[in-house]
């Protein structure tokens, strides 16, 4: 999936939320000394939760509550007289439809649009105070905002009680789902092994404490999963790790389950330094204060620079060591043999489900009864029949014709198109299985694609292959591969306006750091064998169609002819096994090399395609599955022990 | 030229400079109240001059004076007890040979090497004061150093009198060479036009004043050239431009020449706002103070963020608007039609000279009398016979066999190898002509290259062609093209450890911003039609040979089949016309597309090569020249009006 999707509940529809009364109440709260010592003149409502999660739980959708806009990115600011909401180009239309006229839409990326800082400075009376919940603003964002406001004579203050929560009468409670324990067969490493590795990194850099705030990092560290946030198998928690101490902050009720107690060795710790002290989720603040109060003069505490301002500022500056990527983030990104095996199994199951879907589509579409929503539902149903299926890994992007050109599209009843023999169908979807996470995009035509559709599809395929088959030195950062994905499109004057790949978790978040493939030179870490990323170039023709071809690929060592300075080389091995539709390809545009790139080659994909698109429609369900799996087993893609 | 060369005077040789007495004197100066109110505990000696020039005049070689090391990059720091010098991997060997044992070589880029800040903190007594000449430290460097020292209880202070100058008895005087005026036929725009354009950029951004500090920007703005710094046709000056004021700070004696006075309209200015007030070079500080004293409350002053700390801090913070690239830097990078025509002419002349050289080499090498130095001298001699030749644009990298693997090599008597029929010869050289600047690298073999040499040469050539023939959307930054240059090498497990291209001035510095092609994601500006960059991938086998193929290329509009979102596309047109040696190419490794990329194709280059390498040795001098030029004229490379 190229871009974070929209969080649309199907019944939200597109009529604006009436916010007159809510804004009145919020402005009252901004003056209420129950919450703040002095009235504030503006209140900032960011998108995120206290863990800077990309996907958030319903109780954390505060920005949506106050303004009605429910896209994944956006910040609302309310002053005594104004209310404004900043979002980017993906959401201009949606935001304008979901917000009433009490709100001004601030279109980010347009030259004339003021930044939040500049806008505040332009509307605030002199010496104003701007409030924000320090738990949902990241430390680096606080710093920038605070500096900008100070330069204009204003000040940014932390408002401890969230003012949205204060007026949100039917706010959902924070989820506290059952925890799932993962054994060695899925994780490859016990949580004790991971703890020891973390501590050795800390010792290496002379760090006394590490504060874990990202939910996927905590889930990975303790080999636990939850379902507090849709699509992301994580649970609300914090952890503080010292050289002899482990503190886990989580709703204590969740720890009553015997399997969880046993997994964490809560009652019978093997060693003192591996004994976990548990405490309520909310107590992390005071516990971190206590830890910091006892720090020696030279002791340092690691915390992500994207952690909340509230938690970051607990650590005195002299002891604070903020890092862009935590050791957990880096360790989690490099999958071990067990995780890789699990990811491969998950991708076989996922391919079986999607091949069944394609056969079903081929049969059903001519009847005119399949819609974007029903196709996505069918995909979910077929996936759910696979072993260890947990749920989807993100909301399916199921889009027909012009809807395919909307990169973050998610079908709604009022936009739902019927699949036909005349339009391109793009399906970007994925699942969580206990053994792994999938994310795959295929673009298909069930009638006769036009020459132009085939041409552009082939350019995208050439880009996809160029990345997938790239050989590059150890230590190369993913952003250096991005142009390979675009070269064929560029040569014909075409392009796509999103990145090419993101890190993928193993039964964890479908988007994870610290690596990726993008023209944006964010601070990505070098690619390493064992990392897993997506390879998903695309092409979008507004009002007509969208094309995207996405595989999840594993970084593996390559063995080219030479080995310059003993640096070693890397390449990718595709994990995704879903066939690419042969009829969309104009083979005249492919080089011989592109056609025959080894066992993961187009020839192999064509072979699969041939099986499924030429013969599948007459196969029965189990026969498809068997033939598909046996084909994989015969191929050199998989070792015989699968 | 891939990397800044070393500033080696041929007689400097490689014996260490004895610095006992110099260090004693410097330490005395560090306590002398004649220069500073309180003794300082450390003194920093950076590489640069007051204009942050890449190449510097002899009077500015202070770091070389104090420690003996004369590489292009390095910073010396002297404390009461220690003396240390930081430089990068290109210079470890050279620095260790040129410095005596009073100095510690700090090898940058190695994990165990402390940064200047950390080293100072580790050796200084509590509450120390560190001094630096504020004129030769850039504002952004001052900021970082000052912050780091403050965090450890020390302070950074500006020492107005340079302490090296205080002990440098025979310090050369600052050059003040004759100024050359350039007419419209060379510049395409009068300085008055440039001034008007600058002022309109200032008005657009509501900027009242602009302080020009980079020497090439000042030379470009006033259509003047000098020869104060070797290889760079610039002159020491500053300029301050307001909406109705122009102040030029330069050694006043230089303005006595009637042509210069007339060019600048010093005696008869056409308009008040185009009347230039001249003042001595040294008076820029007090004049800028005067300008700042009269600023209105909201007035802003533009200055490069790489300008000296001294000049930057004259501007009160509230009025200071530092920019990474000045409007002059950006305007200068986009060459106008006249400049492009001049660059083309310069490249024809340069190609003629180099073809003569190659023919001469082919004849002379078998005699065993040609050395790296004599070949470089011959190249200079042949170039100097061309019209409007001014000098070299950088010290020639003339290297045989293993010397070619030293990327910044410059032949010295003690390293000078003889060209033979057995070793690869790499020549990276360029010239300044009044109509343009050249920079070209060719790698040749005058006997029979080995299969391995041909193979690696061909990979480099493939990379060179991939960049040169790339088509990319308007707005693309050069760093996104860097991987194209490496793809063929990477596929065979090879790479090169330098960037792929740099901006090239028009009868100005051979290295200029703001664009480039590099894996390092420095803040490069997007490529634009009219920009000129080098395309110079390479491959280096330590102890054996070096390969580099460098053309200077012009960014031009491309017209591919489609035009996505009306963005338009760009590509490159090679300006360099020097043939590439056909016998170094393994044509089996080239695709058909690589062989036939239009009129600037390898076929064309092969044609030239054929002419010169197969027949040249029997041609007489003028015949070569005539045939070469007439070939260009017949080709589609040049319009008939050359």
Automatic annotation (TrEMBL), chains A, B:
| Residue ranges annotated for the Peptidase M24 domain, each copy included | 342-555
This protein's GO cellular component annotations are: cytoplasm
Annotated keywords: Acetylation, Aminopeptidase, Cytoplasm, Hydrolase, Manganese, Metal-binding, Metalloprotease, Protease
Listed GO biological process terms? proteolysis
Question: Required co-factor?
Answer: Mn(2+)
One Pfam family named in its UniProt record: Peptidase_M24_C
The Creatinase N-terminal domain sits at: 26-160
Query: Which cellular compartments is it found in?
Result: Cytoplasm
User: Which family is this protein grouped under?
Assistant: Belongs to the peptidase M24B family.
Q: Which PANTHER family match?
A: XAA-PRO AMINOPEPTIDASE 1
Name of the protein in question: Xaa-Pro aminopeptidase 1
Provide the species name.
Answer: Oncorhynchus kisutch
Q: Could you tell me the gene encoding this protein?
A: XPNPEP1
């Amino acid at each position: 999936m190229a871009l974070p999707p929209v969080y649309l509940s199907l019944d939200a529809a597109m009529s604006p939320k009436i916010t007159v009364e809510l804004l009145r109440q919020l402005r009252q709260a901004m003056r209420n000394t129950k919450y703040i010592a002095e009235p504030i003149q503006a209140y900032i409502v960011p998108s995120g939760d206290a863990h800077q999660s990309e996907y958030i739980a319903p109780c954390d959708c505060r920005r949506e509550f106050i303004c009605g806009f429910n896209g994944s990115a956006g910040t609302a600011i309310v002053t005594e007289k104004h209310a404004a909401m900043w979002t980017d180009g993906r959401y201009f239309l949606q935001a304008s439809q979901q917000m009433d006229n009490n709100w001004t839409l601030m279109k980010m990326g347009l030259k004339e649009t003021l930044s939040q800082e500049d806008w505040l400075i332009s509307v605030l009376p002199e010496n104003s105070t701007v409030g924000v919940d320090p738990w949902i603003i990241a430390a680096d964002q606080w710093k920038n905002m605070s500096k900008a406001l100070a330069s204009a004579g204003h000040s940014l203050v932390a408002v401890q009680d969230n003012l949205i929560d204060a007026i949100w009468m039917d706010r959902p409670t924070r989820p506290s789902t059952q925890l799932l324990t993962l054994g060695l067969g899925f994780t490859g490493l016990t949580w004790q092994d991971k703890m020891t590795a973390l501590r050795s990194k800390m010792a290496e850099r002379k760090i006394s404490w590490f504060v874990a705030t990202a939910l996927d990092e905590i889930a990975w560290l303790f080999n636990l999963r939850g379902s507090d946030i849709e699509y992301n198998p994580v649970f609300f928690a914090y952890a503080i790790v010292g050289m002899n101490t482990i503190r886990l902050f989580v709703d204590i009720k969740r720890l009553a389950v015997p399997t969880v107690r046993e997994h964490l060795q809560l009652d019978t710790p093997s060693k003192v330094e591996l004994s976990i002290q548990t405490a309520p989720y909310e107590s992390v603040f005071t516990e971190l204060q206590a830890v910091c109060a006892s720090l020696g003069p030279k002791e340092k505490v690691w915390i992500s620079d994207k952690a909340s301002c509230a938690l970051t500022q607990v650590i005195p500056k002299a002891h604070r060591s903020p890092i862009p990527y935590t050791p957990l983030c880096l360790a989690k990104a490099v999958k071990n043999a067990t995780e890789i095996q699990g990811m491969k199994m998950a991708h076989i199951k996922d391919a079986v489900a999607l091949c069944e879907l394609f056969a079903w589509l081929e049969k059903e579409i001519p009847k005119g009864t399949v819609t974007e929503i029903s196709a996505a539902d069918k995909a979910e149903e077929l996936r759910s029949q696979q072993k260890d299926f947990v749920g989807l890994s993100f909301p399916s992007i199921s889009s027909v014709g012009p809807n395919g050109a909307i990169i973050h599209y998610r079908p709604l009843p009022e936009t739902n198109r019927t699949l036909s023999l005349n339009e391109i169908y793009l399906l970007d979807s994925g699942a969580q299985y206990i053994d792994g996470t999938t994310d795959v995009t295929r673009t298909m035509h069930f009638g006769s694609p036009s020459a132009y559709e085939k041409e552009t599809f082939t350019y995208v395929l050439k880009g996809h292959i160029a990345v997938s088959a790239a050989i590059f030195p150890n230590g190369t950062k993913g952003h250096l591969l991005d142009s390979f994905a675009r070269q064929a499109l560029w040569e014909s004057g075409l392009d796509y306006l999103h990145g090419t790949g993101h890190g993928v978790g193993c039964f964890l978040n479908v988007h994870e750091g610290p690596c990726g493939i993008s023209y944006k030179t964010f601070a990505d870490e070098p690619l390493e064998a064992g990392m897993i990323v997506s390879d998903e170039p695309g092409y979008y023709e507004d009002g007509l169609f969208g094309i995207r071809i996405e595989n999840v690929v594993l970084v593996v060592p390559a063995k080219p002819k030479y080995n310059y300075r003993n640096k070693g080389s890397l390449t990718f091995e595709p994990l995704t096994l879903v066939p690419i539709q042969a009829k969309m390809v104009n083979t005249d545009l492919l080089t011989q090399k592109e056609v025959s790139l080894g066992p993961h080659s187009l020839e192999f994909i064509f072979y699969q395609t041939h099986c499924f698109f030429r013969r599948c429609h007459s196969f029965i369900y189990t026969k498809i599955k068997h033939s598909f799996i046996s084909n994989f087993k015969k191929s050199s893609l998989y070792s015989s022990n699968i």
